[in-house]
Design goal:
436 residues; Rossmann fold; 6-stranded parallel sheet; 6-stranded mixed sheet; 15 strands; 16% strand; binds nicotinamide-adenine-dinucleotide; binds zinc ion
């Protein structure tokens, strides 16, 4: 029997109770951050030797060198060729759909830059360039994520990134063939079987064996998320994509077994994953809870699910679906399922969610694998200001300023005036030299 926390939005201290559900245990958070900081500092100083030590310790390997942890292209190709036909076809279909979506995104999101000319011949614009080299983190501690290989590498390649360096831990040295096959399909350039904060450090600082990258993207556990936060500035990062989350807002019209399984689907990722149901119908909440208890024993990862739902799960009774949408905006979940009749009316009221799944048939799991949009999404309420991983994460923009001689006469006077105002003589001088 799982005891899931029950909240009622009419309770006086409801907001505080909800905040407590969403918060991570502060002491745990600090301990993880300290551990990540110490690992990063060590990798920065000792390079490969530190990466090797932590990899052998945390992933229970007996590797002799970091070079020995690189997987050659031949091995990626062989993994692809070894797949059973149905699995290979599914992987290819997922890759094709993810690529199609991101190609559309590239076209629609202003990837070509722009220029325009002013009347005096001055040209202004913006140039968009892909990053040269990116590191993609593919999680691998508690589960293997071939789908995350596709979700990270395909948008990078669509953006035009020249070199994609993938890191993925292989606990006890067990390589996942589907992960390697996905790397082959997605065109990953180099793969190292390392993970955790040490992999983030290696990509951020570079080591004798692992090339320094310009940006690190991809999801991971709390150690990976803490390490990414800490290396931001030395390299770019995409977002904080930590332990998975699902918020289901339901009007009570979906089969309770479906919703229970949807809650399991994210809980099974990690003990720290979070699954929340928000519904105006107390009877329906009770039916989902009964279904959870009915279905749990058949789940191979039932202990992970149990811990996640017990420690971080919640079922929230609200006044109505309007209030459910307000709470969805507060929670700003990684995944929001609007499991309701006429879901669009509720989606219109939601501003903060990494991805929205509308209607009874859009299970979150379809988005995880093959719908097409990216499954690397902001967690821990960062959907208030972050977006899904996309082609735009692998591009940067440069401003273009090409001033004509005529333009220099007008702009030069404005700039010089403001430069004198700031007390910056050389700025004024360089503008004034170009005046006739
Ligand atoms: N938000 C997203 O888009 C998304 C997508 C897929 C997965 N996820 C999440 O990614 C996470 C994957 O986690 P995972 O653990 O399976 O794999 P992981 O690869 O993120 O982490 C494994 C690594 O963590 C490090 N580690 C483990 N225990 C440690 C300790 N005590 N001290 C220091 N380092 C330690 C080890 O180096 C290990 O190699 C899950 O939380 C899952 O929910 C998120
Ligand atoms: N739900 C994860 C993102 O939070 C992605 C994933 C990959 N495989 C299964 N699920
Ligand atoms: Zn998932």
């Amino acid at each position: 029997m799982i005891q899931i926390r029950k909240l009622d939005s009419t309770a006086e201290n409801f907001k505080a109770q909800l905040a407590a559900v969403l918060a991570f245990e502060a002491s745990e958070d600090e301990a993880i951050d300290r551990a990540a900081a110490q690992i990063l500092a060590d990798v920065k100083i000792r390079g490969d030797a530190a990466v090797l030590d932590y990899t052998n310790r945390f992933d229970k390997l007996d590797a002799q060198s970091v070079a020995g942890l690189e997987i050659a292209q031949d091995e990626l190709r062989a993994a692809l060729d070894s797949l059973a036909p149905a699995r290979r076809a599914a992987l290819q279909t997922a890759a094709d759909r993810v690529r199609a979506y991101h190609e559309r995104q590239k076209k629609e999101c202003g990837s070509d830059g722009f220029t325009y000319a002013e009347a005096d011949g001055t040209v202004l614009g913006q140039k968009v360039t892909p990053l040269d080299r990116v590191g993609i983190y593919v999680p691998g501690g508690k589960a293997a994520y071939p789908s995350s290989v596709l979700m990270n590498a395909i948008p990078a390649k669509v953006a035009g990134v020249q070199e994609v360096v993938m890191v993925v831990p292989t606990p006890a040295g067990v390589k996942n063939e589907l992960v390697l096959a996905a790397a082959a399909i997605a065109g990953v350039d180099r793969v190292f079987t390392i993970g955790g904060a040490q992999a983030v450090g290696a990509l951020a600082f570079g080591t004798a064996t692992i090339p320094q990258v310009d940006k690190i993207v991809g999801p991971g556990n709390a150690y990976v998320a803490a390490a990414k936060r800490r290396v931001f500035g030395i390299v770019g990062i995409d977002m904080i994509a930590g332990p998975s989350e699902i918020l289901v807002i339901c009007d009570g019209t979906t089969d309770p077994d479906w919703v229970a399984m949807d809650l399991f689907s994210q809980a099974e990722h990690d003990e720290l994953a979070q699954s929340i149901l928000v519904c105006p119908d107390a009877g329906y909440i009770a039916r989902v809870e009964a279904s959870i208890n009915k279905q749990l024993d058949a789940m191979p990862r039932k202990e992970v699910i149990r811990t996640s739902l017990t420690n971080r799960g919640a079922m929230v009774k609200v006044r109505d679906m309007d209030e459910a949408c307000e709470i969805a905006n507060l929670i700003a979940a990684e995944h929001l399922e609007i499991s309701a009749e006429n879901p669009q009316q509720w989606a219109d009221k939601v501003r903060h969610a990494g991805a929205m799944f509308l209607g009874h048939f859009s299970s979150e799991s379809l988005g995880d694998y093959c719908a097409g949009p990216n499954h690397v999404l902001p967690t821990s309420r960062t959907a208030r200001f972050s977006s899904p991983l996309g082609v735009y994460d692998f591009q940067k923009r440069s401003s273009i300023i090409h001033v004509s001689q005529a333009g220099a006469q007008t702009l030069g006077k404005v700039a010089a005036e403001l430069a004198y105002g700031e007390g910056l003589q050389a700025h004024a001088g360089s503008a004034e030299y170009r005046l006739k």
